[in-house]
């Protein structure tokens, strides 16, 4: 059996989707910061591609948008199929 490495995630698509979700709701960075308990600076740095953020950051954003975390992170798989099937053996 040949094992291939996973495709590279697309953080650009992720940050663009974050910006799109915020804009669709008509929220400023200040509004999203208040709804997510994140700093305005963190949100701006993510949207501008200076940082990717932590899992806790994306978890807070998912709650602010009322989305499942997996749906919010789905743009990471832009350009390739997300993994399906059984998880790998541990």
Description:
This protein is mainly α. Helix content is 51%, strand content 0%. It has five helices and no strands. The protein has helices at residues 11-24, 29-36, 40-47, 55-65, 69-73. The longest helix is centred in the N-terminal third of the chain and has 14 residues, at 11-24. It is elongated and about 50 Å long. The chain starts with 10 loop residues before the first helix and ends in a 17-residue tail after the last helix.
How do the strands and helices of this protein lay out in sequence?
Layout: H1 11-24, H2 29-36, H3 40-47, H4 55-65, H5 69-73
Could you list some keywords that capture this structure?
0% strand, elongated, mainly alpha, 51% helix, 90 residues, 5 helices
């Amino acid at each position: 059996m040949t094992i291939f490495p996973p495709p590279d995630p697309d953080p650009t698509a992720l940050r663009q989707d974050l910006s799109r979700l915020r804009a669709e709701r008509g929220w400023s960075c200040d509004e999203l910061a208040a709804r997510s308990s994140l700093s305005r600076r963190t949100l701006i740095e993510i949207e501008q591609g200076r940082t990717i953020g932590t899992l806790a950051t994306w978890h807070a954003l998912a709650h602010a948008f009322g989305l499942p975390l997996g749906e919010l992170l789905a743009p990471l798989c832009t350009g390739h199929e997300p993994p399906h099937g059984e998880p790998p053996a541990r």
